[in-house]
Specification:
Length: 238
């Protein structure tokens, strides 16, 4: 919101500068013409303009303006128009506004991008921490499992990881990976049934432990891939 307010403020300032009416001058346009034509440097050119137009003129240009104002005005306006530097067009007037507009938009996009990257990295770090804690707790549980041992630490770390994945799922509904991992953490071999169903048969326990270890590694790899995707918004998941 701060970036959006900055853009709106910049646009308003640029628009007021671009479309504000010009400041009033003490001299009118007609006065400027007279001053120009009666200047010493322009008197010869004024006479030449009168000759080119075929209008009557007075030897004294000051008196000419008084005695024959129509012919003087015609010659003066022609001279003034011929020598006047063309004023800036509409594009020159709008250019400051366009410059401010693109500058404000660029600043807004850059700020928004940086904020998005910062948020993505923060979520990625939290997700990486959660999956590491779940991986370590589950690995310890599988390695040192004994009948009747509770999986309290694993359940706590699983809940934390699922919560982090749910946040990613809400922010990126088109990503299938968070939903897939959540399902595997709740209904898969590492889900809530991890602490039940172990057999008294040592060989069966070895097979189940191996399957759980493989699933644990796959989940860790997938979650870390999601974390990488969060830290690079444009490229998405690797």
């Amino acid at each position: 919101m701060r970036g959006l307010r900055a853009v709106v403020t910049a646009l308003l300032l640029c628009a007021s500068a671009a479309f504000a009416p010009p400041l009033a001058h003490a001299d009118t346009e007609d006065d400027a013409k007279v001053v120009h034509c009666l200047s010493t440097a322009q008197r010869t050119a004024l006479r030449e303009a009168a000759e080119a137009l075929g209008v009557a003129q007075d030897p004294d240009v000051v008196q000419w303006r008084k005695t024959n104002p129509d012919s003087f005005t015609r010659a003066c306006e022609a001279l003034y128009a011929a020598q006047k530097t063309p004023g800036p067009g509409w594009f020159a007037n709008v250019l400051p506004f366009l410059t401010g507009l693109f500058g404000a938009l660029a600043a807004f996009i850059l700020t928004t991008w940086r904020e998005r990257v910062t948020r993505g990295r923060a979520v990625a770090d939290a997700l990486g921490t959660a999956v590491t804690e779940f991986h370590d707790a589950t690995e310890v549980f599988l390695r040192s499992w004994t009948p009747g041992r509770a999986d309290t630490d694993v359940a706590s770390k699983r809940h934390k990881l699922v919560d982090q994945l749910a946040r990613v799922q809400a922010a990126h509904p088109r990503w299938p990976e968070p939903t897939n991992v959540i399902d595997r953490l709740t209904t898969g071999p590492l889900g809530e049934q991890l602490n039940v169903g172990w057999s008294a048969n040592t060989e069966e326990n070895k097979k189940r432990r191996a399957a759980c270890t493989s699933e644990l590694a796959q989940i860790r790899t997938t979650v870390l891939s999601i974390a990488i995707g969060l830290s690079r918004p444009l490229r998405g998941l690797p």
